[in-house]
């Protein structure tokens, strides 16, 4: 059975330094990836719901997992953005 903290969390977040949104991926080890390029919260949320499983499996050849989705809030202006 999967451990509760073994899967990353996905969160739609607003950019502080520019217009737009990004998806923050929080890994169990504390690492965070950022996927930029979304015009709206709804677009980022649709990406999480529709494309995050494929994105994740491409990166870690993962076995089935559960997405953890958080409510959006303002991001740090110092956020790093990583598309891959």
Write a structural description.
With 84 residues, this protein is an alpha+beta fold. The protein has one domain (9-70). The chain has one helix spanning 41-60, and strands at residues 9-14, 21-26, 32-38, 68-70. It has a 4-stranded mixed sheet, with helices on one face.
Helix-strand blueprint:
Layout (H helix, E strand, L loop, with lengths): L8 E6 L6 E6 L5 E7 L2 H20 L7 E3 L14
Parallel strand pairs: 1-4
Antiparallel strand pairs: 1-2, 2-3
Shape type: globular
Order of helices and strands: EEEHE
Structural category: alpha+beta
What oligomeric state best describes the polypeptide chains here?
Answer: single chain
Span between N and C termini? Answer: 29 Å
Rg over C-alpha atoms, rounded to the nearest angstrom: 12 Å
Strand segment tally: 4
Q: Assign a percent range to the helix content.
A: 10-25%
Question: Number of domains in the coordinates?
Answer: 1
Major β-sheet annotation: 4 strands, mixed
Instruction: State the low-pLDDT regions, or none.
Output: 74-84
Q: Which percent band covers the strand fraction?
A: 25-35%
| Biggest sheet strand line-up | 3-2-1-4
Rounded mean pLDDT is 78
Number of helices: 1
Quick take:
It is built from one helix and four strands, in the order βββαβ. The chain has 84 residues and is α+β, with helices and mostly antiparallel strands.
Q: Which features characterize this protein?
A:
single chain; 84 residues; alpha+beta; 1 helix; 24% helix; 26% strand; disordered C terminus
């Amino acid at each position: 059975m999967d451990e509760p903290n073994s899967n990353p969390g996905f969160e739609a977040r607003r950019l502080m330094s520019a217009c737009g949104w990004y998806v923050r991926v929080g890994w169990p080890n504390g690492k965070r990836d950022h996927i930029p390029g979304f015009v709206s919260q709804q677009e980022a949320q649709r990406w999480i719901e529709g494309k995050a499983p494929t994105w994740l499996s491409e990166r870690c050849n993962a076995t089935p997992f559960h997405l953890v989705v958080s409510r959006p809030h303002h991001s740090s202006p110092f956020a790093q953005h990583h598309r891959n």
